Amino acid sequence: MEIKLKVGEITTKKELDIEVREYVNSIPQIEEIKSIQDRTKVYERVTAARRFVKRVGEERLKVTRVIDAEKKKYTELEKRILEPLAKVLEKAEKSINDYDNWQLEVEQTRQKNAQKAFESVNFPKGEVSRLDTTYLPLPAPSDGIPTSEIKGLNISISYEIEDFAKIPEKYFMIDQEKVLADLKQGIKIEGIRKVEKAKTRFS
Fold it and tell me: Residues of the chain whose pLDDT is less than 50?
């Protein structure tokens, strides 16, 4: 798109560049103003340059106001046309996300139950204490599909404080970076629990 310039007598980009350089070179490079004469000189040049900047901005507005008006009309048209689809998508995506969170809860419950069952198993003498399907068959997920294989499903992990009284003193005046760094290293901190939420990506 070709941009047409019209700032006073200036009609080309080259002329505009020259004018800018003239203003740059004409403003005295005074580090510190120490007299009224210096102040007046700088003030006059700065005022003239500011007026020039304002004129350039006014010309820009003549172009962008038209674009903005067209953009507003298009946005309103887009919203009106797509609104029925947006409502359907919102409802469907919420249903999927609700299911994903439910599936995550089922998986977490399954893992907790498996761990409890594992801890209650009396292994034969000399047997390595590990989760072994010989002694502990694991139940399948609710739909028979592991959460890791559900298309578009990502698990976001965050942490929230569940009991301030149990948090070790070294984490008070809480250094969030230190807390998160230790948690990511697998260090368990009493009083803080991991929170997992299903976050569905639609592509």
Answer: 1, 127-140, 203
Whole-angstrom distance, CA of residue 22 vs CA of residue 17: 9
Q: Structure tokens of 140?
A: 């399948």
Buried b (16+ CB within 10 A) or exposed e, 124-161: eeeeeeeeeeeeeeeeebeeeeebeebeebeeeeeeee
Q: Is the pTM of this model over 0.90?
A: no
E strand map for the chain = 153-161, 192-200
pLDDT for 146 equals 62
pLDDT in tens, 82-114: 999 989 999 998 888 888 888 788 877 877 877
For 102, half-sphere exposure in the C-beta direction (CA atoms, 13 angstrom radius) is: 8
Q: Which residues contact 97 (CB under 8 A, 6 or more apart)?
A: 198, 199, 200
Kindly report the length of the chain. 203
Every domain of the chain and the residues it spans: 13-83, 151-203
Q: How many CA atoms lie within 13 A of 124 on its CB side?
A: 4
